[in-house]
Amino acid sequence: MSVQMPLIIMFTDSLNLPIKSDRSKQQDQILILPGMTWEDYEQLVAAESSYLISYFDNQITIVSPSPSHERLSRIALILIDTYCVHFNIKSWALGSTDLKKAQVAGKQPDESFDIGTYKGTVTSRDLAVEINYTSGSFADLDKYKEFQVKEVWLWEQHKINFYRFDDSDYQLIEVSHVLEKLSSNLVNQFVNLNMISQDDGTIKAEFLQALDPDF
């Protein structure tokens, strides 16, 4: 049975549960709807703009990002933008713009980019950033495989890993292929919970110093 729109999403902060709501708000809130159709997904994406929504294997996943989730995503954006400007690499930040493969998969990344040339397509990206702050799994890579996104930076369990799409699957790599010479070790020095309260300007300056000590 199809979902009737508009769909009211009831996350834990709007339920009368015997828990501390402040604690729940510090975590991502996730709703999983099995048995859904592509049409349900399309209607939901059209109706809601404040959540990250994905569709795969007849399942809709809706994420209400926590402030820490959003901050980690923002830091990744700062690093990528700073790297591209510093090394004169053309890039186009596309944010959470939908990736869609009709009837098969839909995904809203935390951040996404075209690198080198602007493709402007809903079917693929050069780079995507995925923050699994509270819950999530490598199942997100299965969604990205449908779009053959060239490289995915997946943050979970307090660490970001780089994955490169190779023929039919993602392979773990230590150095980015899309942003050559940029290592996951360096990125992990900045995309972590200790840096959340640091201001954007300081993060950018410290990252530039790490890239080029003479800068």
What does this structure look like?
By secondary structure, this protein is α+β, with helices and mostly antiparallel strands. It contains six helices and eleven strands. A six-stranded mixed beta sheet has the order 4-7-8-9-10-11. Strand 2 (52-56) and strand 3 form a beta hairpin. Helix 3 (67-86) packs across helix 6. The longest helix has 20 residues, at 67-86. Mean pLDDT is 88; it is low at 1-10.
Give the SSE order as H and E letters: HEHEEHEEEEEHEEEHH
Stretches where pLDDT falls below 50 for ≥5 residues?
A: 1-10
- Specify the oligomeric state: single chain
How many extended strands?
A: 11
How many DSSP H or I helices? 6
Tell me the radius of gyration: 18 Å
Q: Kindly report the spatial arrangement of strands forming the biggest sheet.
A: 4-7-8-9-10-11
**Percent of residues in helical segments?**
25-40%
How many angstroms separate the termini? 59 Å
Mean pLDDT figure: 88
Percentage of β-strand residues:
25-35%
**Apparent shape:** globular
Q: Tell me about the largest β-sheet.
A: 6 strands, mixed
Structural class: alpha+beta
